[in-house]
Amino acid sequence: MDVGFIGLGRMGKAMAANLLRAGHTLRVWNRTRSAAADLEALGAKVAVQPTEAAANAQVLMLMLADDAATRAVLVGQGVLERMPREAVCVNLGTVSVAAAKELSRLAAARGVGYVAAPVFGRPEVAEAARLNIVVAGEAAAVERVRPLLAAIGERIWPVGEQPERANVVKIAGNFMIASALETMGEAAALARAHGVTAQQLLEIMTSTLFASPVYQGYGRLIAEQRYTPAGFGLALGFKDVRLALEAGGAAHVPMPFASVLRDRFLEAIAAGESDLDWSSIAELSARHAGVAAAASGK
Q: What tens digit of pLDDT does each residue of 203-246 get?
């Protein structure tokens, strides 16, 4: 399939590489051209402008940071206008409910299909093509892009025809992860204050009561205080918590803990830690408890 791919951060680059390995033809674009070098070596064509990635694509896939970046490319740089009619735009990124509705309308007016397909998984999961992909869009468009999604993920989770439904699931899921990070941080600080290391506590909890990939994976990062390189940065976590609050407000759904998380992420960002992994919010609890200087394994 002829595919355009825009957005080559760690996640996007891994997905694009897996599409190439699956035999698809890719024309890629990234704001920083050097990010495309590895993909070019694998056979991708590198576009000079984002419109070049879209002009002849049967499917255009996007993996961009937020609403602003997505609108800037699709609308501001005229990418949507350059897409062939009957092509499909697949948005793999996490955008707001409002943006999903807006972009879907704009695509329909252009005669282009729009599929929301946000993913769950960190960069190493993307590299292994083991992402979980939440999908929403018109059934025909979803079926058309299914082979591409199968090349980058291990399971596809359809949630209906309205694209914003997939984004709601993604936003809700990231809110749940952020909640788990805060919980582990507070629990680890409590344990440290009483002479139990974070590693001891979290190994017990993630091997028994909380034996799930989220608790186990992030529990190790917190126990080892290993927050770089960031698989998912604090700034992105802050964005997604804000999206949860925004979606809740639009539907009159109170989310009191989301307000707490927003302030926690904001505090960490204000302390100059926005480049750290979002699991580093656990260190806020340690600092507030006066146990931050103690290494997790001591």
A: 999 999 999 999 999 999 999 999 999 999 999 999 999 999 99
Residues labelled as active-site residues:
170
Is the pLDDT reported for residue 298 higher than 60? no
Residue of 277, 236, 275 lying closest to 124 (CA atoms): 277
Tokens of 216: 């186990």
CB burial readout 151-187, b (16+ within 10 A) else e? bbbeebebbeebbbbbbbbbbebbbebbbbbbbbbbb
Q: State how many domains the chain has.
A: 2
On the question of pLDDT at 103 being above 60, the answer is: yes
pLDDT, residue 292, reads: 77
CB atoms within 10 A of CB 294: 15
The tokens for 171 are: 């936003």
Distances (CA, A) of 234 to 157, 170, 173, 214, 254: 26, 17, 16, 16, 23
Q: 242: which residues sit within 8 A by CB, 6+ positions away? A: 262
Instruction: Find the CATH number of the domain harbouring 236.
Output: 1.10.1040.10
